[in-house]
Every structure is written in C-alpha cells, then in structure tokens.
Design a protein that fits this description.
With about 625 residues, this protein is of the alpha/beta class. The protein contains 21 helices and 19 strands.
C-alpha cells in the first residue's frame, strides 16, 4: 500500500482536478489484466533456458510444475490476485511502488533517482543562466496549467490511449523518509500550492510563482525574482542541508526526525516538500575535455558532482528537480516512486517547445514580495549528520563510472529500413557487446511502460532469449556464413519484439511473479519454493539494467546499476544517431563502463555491416 499524506485538512481544490483527469484517463484505458498462470510459468522457464545448465534447469522445471499444478499453491495465489484485481485500481502498481521504491533503504542518488541530461544551451555566464531558468520555470507553469484545464492531450501508443494519472502527481509531491519504509506525500491546501523552491550555493528559497488573484508570474517577473535570490545567496560557509537527503534511507529518517524537532527546521523542510517543484542553480561543470564533457554533465545532474561541487544544491526526495548550470548545462532529476520516464519526456518536450517562443509578457508594475530564504538551526547532532552524509555521498559518487556518448553511424531509421524493431535491434546489440566483454550471457531487463492500463507503471522484458544466445555464440565464428548470421540476427531481434508485444498486451511475466510472491506473504504463507530457488535469485540479479527513453530531442537518461557487478544502460534513438549512457561501479573489478561502451560501438558498426548486401 502507498501511504499518501495530505497536509492542511481541506485539499479539495488541489485534488479535484487531479481526480477529474484520472476519471478521464480511467474511462479510456482498460484495467491491467492478471496474466494466466500457465503463460507466466512457461515464460519464466523459457527465460531461464539461456542462463542455466541443463541439470539446474531440470530441477527448477520440476519445482515450477509442482507450483503450477491444478489445485496447487500457484492456483490458490492466482485466484487471490484475480480477486485483488477486481477491487483495486491496479492489482500491481501499489505493491510495486512499495516493494521496489518505498521499502528500499539504499540512497536515492545513483541507486534510484534517474537524471536526464539535455543539450547544452548556448551561454556560459550567470546572467544567461537566470534568463534561461526563468523561461524554464514559466514553461513548467504553462504545463501545469494545461493539466489543470484539461488541455493536455491524452497520449497514445500503437493506437491505444495511455493512462494520464501520473501527470498531476508530479507536482507538489515529495518522498518522506521513514524507519522501515518511506511514503509519498502529495501536498495540498484549500487551493493549489503557489510556490517553487530555488536553491543556489546550498541555500534554499521559497519563490511564489502565482499572484494573489491566481494568475501566473510572467517570465520577466520570475527573472527579477531570481536576480534577488542570487543577490542573497553568495558563497558562504552555509551547511549543505540537501546532502542529508542523499543518505541511506534509515539514516536520513533518523536525521529527519532530529531536524523536525526544531520549529524553524520543520517549517523550512515543509516548504521544500510542498513546493510545486525545485530549481537548482548550479555552478559550472568542471570541464576536462570535450570528449568527456557529456559524461561529466550527466553525472552532475545525477548526483551534483560531490560535496565540493553542486550536491548540496539537491533535495533528492523531491519528485521534480530542474538543474540549470552556469555553463549552459541543464537537465532534470526525478524521484521514481511518483514519476516514470515517458511522462517526464513529454514534460521536457513541452519545455523545449515553449523555450523556442519569445517572451510575450511584460512585467506588470506591481511590487513583488521578496523571495523567502529558508533558514535552518544546525545543532551539534545535525552537524554530525551532515558530515557523515558528505563522506558517504563522495564515496558513492567516486565509485560510479559514467560514460555518455553519441553513436553517429546510424540511428533508428536503419533497423526500420530492414523491417526490424529499433529497440529490439539495440537490445540484441547490447547482449552481444556484453558477451564479448564478459564471455557469458546475463540476466537483463528492458524496461517497458504499462501505461496502456489503468494506473499502470512499468514491466520488465527479459533478455537474453534462446534466439539471442544462438546468434551471439555464432557471430564471431568464421565458419558461420554471412547469410546464416543474418538469419540468426533477425530471429533474435524478432524474438525480443515478440516479447515486447506480449508485454504491451499485459502479458509480461516479472510483475506477475512478484505479485504471486507478495500475495503469499500477504496471506501469511511461507514464501513459495520457486522464489527460494537458486535459479530465481540468479534470474533476478539484473546485471544489465536497460531502458529506451525516446524523446524528440538529443537528451540522454542516466542512472546507476541495480547490482554491484552490473551495468545500467539507457539509450535515446534518433533518426540517424543514438545517444547512450552506460554506468558501472568502480569497486567491481569485472565491470568497466568505457570498455563496454567501446565494445558496443564496435558491435553496432559490425551489425551495420551484417545488414549490408554481400557482393
């Protein structure tokens, strides 16, 4: 269950348009089905075949068959899920958010919050930084207005309408740390919140962005307010309070309680949490070379660059944080319990389109209230908490290897030309590159959206498949003909496409397996043996965490690996090029982001040659 805390008693005005939009999207999208038990169990065994030796697979097959026999434990748990589906908005989403995010105790930076890095703006000074930041804020307020007035078009995928309920929840929401699990707070008052939070040089400010009559501040008004904030936020010995939010969740939860004992601190934290969104005005990214700048820029947005850089300019619990650098770098960092990639991409696309238009509003000659600086009372205990958080965050940041690059030889038009899915093409390329580096296949997940269902979030598509394994084992063998390799490649790509199509129909296997496990726990039963089996642990040790985040611009998403000996790979295919980000942990001697990146580039080039007609 997701715990949602609403402050200030009456929040009808804030939530009325939320419920209205939800009603509209619910009327046009179907409920998420519970897949048939036999389908999921067969799919699970099929997914294990490339990963397990025959004797282990035989043992697991017997266990799965026992679980799935008619009248057995699996049938009982399946009936429980089907009953749950009848009485809940979405039978999986609340469980997934609670299990995957809110119960996780790992720090949010690197381990959870994704970052999106966008093309550098054409400026390199603080004056232009504030002009762009004011334009960005105005664009986001325009997006919020479209949600409130019902002007945001319903999105479609493959002709099917998508659930739009996440959009209003992106704003004025925040994750709150707890001792055993966190919860999501969607804040409201008798009317919608009217402020955002701006942070510069580790100092937080409450900036009202609506007038008393409900009208929005113009871009020039917001710009004048940002100038005031800059004049109040010169570099001082201010403690980086935002660093506390980067801690292990239990540690931050204890510090949060200590911080909240003080009335001043409690009010300052509340204003950060309740704001529509946050804007981080960062100092320049340290530039080493043009080649490494893209990687450094993405890392800067992801975690702030460290305690001597901009990490103190973050409040990692906040759902939306826009980062605007003094050197033209910019992007967005978001908290996943409330937000998913596709809605974020839509928001960013709106911002980019809005920023192409000139500011048509003149600032009214009305005196504006001074932005409110948020103060904190820091005692010895809080000072100790901050110092510990600084040490731990720097260790985490130094451990993360980030490699961002633009593959320019071809983009999604090439696979399309040959009748192949661009996403499946890239997925098979990733498997081949990993195999070449590590001489093995590994459990991999490709993140797919489930927004075609009411309240749907995400699902994993498993790879490799048997077809992928056959292809990658044959590709580097000289005694296999070009025609045979091409045929195996097509079969591998099409096998992944078939899995994708099943997932889009609500027939993915990962969330269903998790649901069966959580249903057993919820009924007070022992965890079924198939989930205690070594094979299940191996199959869910995701060494390759991948995700396509398509966008209408040259952006790239970045996040950390799910496991210590794994990689996280994001990609954004454009017509004639593809943006990639690869991350790995330096503490693992076996993984190296740059090595995998170089191998992937070489692999993509060779696949391009494979598709060329032979003479």
């Amino acid at each position: 269950m997701i715990f949602r805390k609403i402050q200030s008693g009456s929040c009808r005005a804030w939530l009325s348009w939320v419920s209205m939009r939800q009603e509209l999207c619910f009327s046009s999208v179907p409920p998420q089905p519970v897949p048939p038990l036999t389908h999921t169990l067969q799919g699970y065994l099929k997914a294990l075949e490339p990963l397990l030796p025959p004797e282990e697979l035989s043992h697991t097959r017997r266990m799965v068959h026992e679980f799935g026999r008619p009248g057995g434990l699996g049938s009982h748990l399946q009936a429980g899920l089907e009953k749950r589906a009848k009485f809940t908005k979405n039978w999986m989403t609340d469980w997934w958010v609670q299990w995957a995010y809110l119960e996780s105790r790992q720090p949010l930076p690197v381990h959870s919050n994704p970052a999106i890095s966008l093309p550098r703006r054409d400026y390199n000074d603080w004056r232009s930084q504030l002009v762009f930041a004011s334009k960005l804020i105005t664009a986001v307020l325009d997006f919020i207005a479209k949600i409130k007035t019902g002007q945001l078009p319903v999105e479609y995928m493959r002709g099917m309408p998508l659930c739009m309920e996440l959009y209003p929840l992106l704003f004025s929401s925040c994750r709150i740390p707890g001792p055993k699990h966190d919860y999501i707070a969607h804040y409201g008052r008798s009317r919608s919140p009217t402020h955002i939070t701006v942070v510069r040089n580790y100092q937080f400010f409450q900036l009202e962005v609506y007038n008393s009559d409900g009208s929005r501040l113009t871009q020039s008004q917001i710009h004048s307010q940002l100038l005031r904030i800059r004049s109040q936020s010169w570099k001082t010995d201010k403690e980086p309070m935002g660093i506390l939010t980067s801690e292990h969740r239990h540690t931050w939860g204890e510090a949060y309680n200590r911080l909240s004992r003080d009335k001043l601190n409690k009010e300052s934290v509340r204003l950060i949490e309740t704001g529509l969104f946050s804007v981080c005005l960062d100092s320049p990214v340290m530039r080493i070379s043009d080649e490494k700048y893209a990687s450094r820029k993405a890392a800067q947005i992801l975690h702030g660059g460290g305690t001597f850089s901009n990490s103190g300019n973050r409040w990692f619990d906040k759902t939306l944080q826009f980062v605007v650098g003094e050197d033209g770098s910019w992007g967005l960092l978001y908290e996943q319990a409330t937000a998913d990639g596709p809605p974020i991409a839509t928001l960013l696309d709106h911002i980019l389109q809005y920023c192409e238009n000139p500011d048509s509003f003149r600032a009214p000659l009305i005196p504006l209230p001074m932005p409110k600086k948020l103060y904190f009372h820091i005692d010895r205990e809080i000072k100790r908490d901050i110092e510990l958080a600084k040490q731990n965050l720097d260790i985490l940041i130094n451990d993360l290897d980030v490699n961002v690059f633009n593959f320019k030889k071809f983009g999604k038009d090439l696979p399309k030309k040959h009748g192949l899915s661009p996403n499946s093409f890239i997925q098979v390329a990733l498997q081949l590159a990993y195999y070449r580096v590590h001489n093995e296949v590994c459990p991999s997940c490709d993140i797919a959206s489930q927004r075609m269902f009411r309240g749907g979030r995400t699902e994993y598509i498993r790879s490799p498949t048997n077809q992928t394994l056959k292809f990658i084992q044959a590709f580097d063998k000289e005694n296999v003909s070009h025609e045979a390799k091409l045929q195996l490649f097509r079969e591998a790509v099409n096998a992944h496409t078939a899995l994708t199509n099943l997932t889009i129909k609500g027939l993915g296997i990962e969330r269903h397996l998790l649901g069966l496990k959580l249903q057993a726990i919820g009924e007070g039963l022992s965890i079924p043996k198939i989930f205690m089996d070594t094979a299940y642990g191996l199959a869910t040790h995701w060494k390759l965490r991948t995700g396509q985040v398509p966008a209408n611009t040259d952006s790239v998403m970045c996040f950390g690996p799910l496991v210590p000996d794994g990689y996280a790979i994001c990609y954004n295919p454009q017509a004639d090029h593809v943006h990639f980000s690869i991350t790995a942990f330096n503490c693992c001697e076996e993984t190296h982001a740059e090595t995998l990146a170089l191998t992937l580039k070489d692999t993509l080039c060779q696949l391009h040659e494979l598709l060329q007609p032979t003479v």
